[in-house]
Specification:
62% helix, mainly alpha, 14 helices, three-stranded antiparallel beta sheet, 6 strands
């Protein structure tokens, strides 16, 4: 039997006292994202929009933020036991929305069909909603399996695996491999830390890597990105132009940065407002700014995991852990791409990159983490926590946590 790495309900504190610091971390990330958009996108906006609206992307991001805060508030106050009843329907709806751009109402951009066009309402990217949906789906299945006492026995791993495969497959069909890899990675992390057998987890990792390699080879543009990544300096004006420019912008920032409103005028990164927005922050603030960002991301992750471990409700604990991990892993992947550590992908930086759907999805996940703070005061799916011989155990589960 696998051993749980993540142990919910072991801090023995009132979880409601922890939500303040987590809320501060969310507001700081969002505020820093708006500020970075302000100092990095003026030249790009003026170049794209002939009316010289240099604050276009900032204004648009603030409007989406208003909508995001509504979703943030709703997802933080609606009882998790009510949300849990809707998971089945929600998963089906999200899967259908992810499939629709492939067959109808899809908007193609940069060779991918990731956006769903709704007449008179605009476009949105349904794969972004797959992120919280996968977390809720896995948390629900794992908790129910533990409640029945059959976790890690028989074919209890089958339904989580099928769900992960379904989500990643339909997103790959949209030619959004980066989001599929993110969801698969976080899904496997959730299974591992909750105690799934390594005999299940390791084959899933191997098969996942093998499948990713196949999908990279199948698409010429993905293969070209990999070739450019493996041969730095050879395709600086063609295949690797964007990453090369990003590295130049970052290195130009030095230790202290070029300061606000400087350095970006003559440096051309195509669509810096999206996936490469972090290079604008680095150019302005330098290495000091990079350190500050990672300290803030670490603070956010730490507070999210503190909330997760403090939950007396196991389902809420896993939801909080999954949402925190999703945002943290996505942030690290984006910064890795921008800095040249990873091959170029189309994954946005949470709270920074322009894009309403991505921003709303991040707010929803943060709202779910805050919601977990109050989960102890709902009807739990298992009975009271007890201490027996130095172990925290839960009645009716038959599983021990150190």
């Amino acid at each position: 039997m696998g051993k749980a790495v993540f142990k919910p309900g072991t801090l023995g504190e009132d979880n409601r006292s922890k939500n303040g610091l987590f809320l501060i971390s969310v507001l700081l990330l969002w505020g820093l994202g708006i500020f970075t958009m302000l100092i990095s996108t003026a030249d790009t906006a003026e170049r794209i929009f002939k009316e010289h609206n240099k604050y276009y992307f900032v204004t648009r991001q603030i409007i989406f933020s208003a909508v995001g805060f509504v979703f943030f508030f709703v997802s933080s106050i609606v009882p998790l036991k009510f949300i849990r009843k809707l998971i089945g329907v929600g998963v089906v709806v999200v899967l259908i929305m992810c499939f629709l751009p492939i067959v109808a109402l899809g908007h193609e951009s940069h060779g991918a069909t990731r956006w769903l066009t709704i007449p008179h309402l605009g476009r949105f990217q349904p794969s972004e909603f797959a992120k919280p949906a996968v977390v809720l789906f896995l948390a629900n299945l794992i908790d129910k399996s533990m409640e029945r006492g059959d976790f890690n026995t028989g074919d209890s791993w089958l339904y989580p695996a099928i769900g992960l495969i379904a989500f990643t497959s339909v997103i790959i069909l949209q030619k959004d491999l980066s989001t599929a890899v993110l969801i698969l990675t976080v899904g496997i992390i959730i299974l591992f830390v909750t105690g799934a057998r390594l005999a299940w987890v390791i084959p899933m990792v191997v098969l996942g890597v093998f499948a990713i390699a196949i999908f990279v080879v199948m698409e010429p543009y993905r293969l070209n990105r990999l070739i450019a990544y493996l041969n730095p300096g050879e395709y600086t004006l063609s295949l690797d132009y964007q990453r090369n420019q990003s590295n130049y912008v970052i290195s130009a920032g030095g230790f202290w940065g070029n300061g606000l409103g400087t350095g970006m005028t003559s440096l051309n990164i195509p669509e810096i407002q999206t996936d490469y927005i972090f290079s604008g922050w680095t150019n302005a603030m330098g290495l000091v700014g990079v350190i500050a960002y990672f300290l803030l991301l670490g603070f956010f992750s730490w507070r999210g995991y503190v909330i997760s471990r403090g939950c007396g409700n196991r389902f809420a604990s896993y939801v909080s852990f999954g949402c925190t991990t999703m945002i943290m892993v996505q942030s690290i992947l984006n910064v890795g791409v921008v800095s040249g550590l990873f091959p170029t992908t189309g994954i946005p930086l949470p709270f920074f990159s322009a894009g309403g759907t991505s921003l709303i999805s991040s707010f929803i996940m943060c709202g779910l983490v805050l919601n977990a703070c109050n989960s102890d005061h709902e009807e739990n799916v298992y009975s009271a926590r007890k201490k027996v011989g130095g172990f925290a155990t839960y009645e009716g589960i038959g599983q021990e946590y150190e």
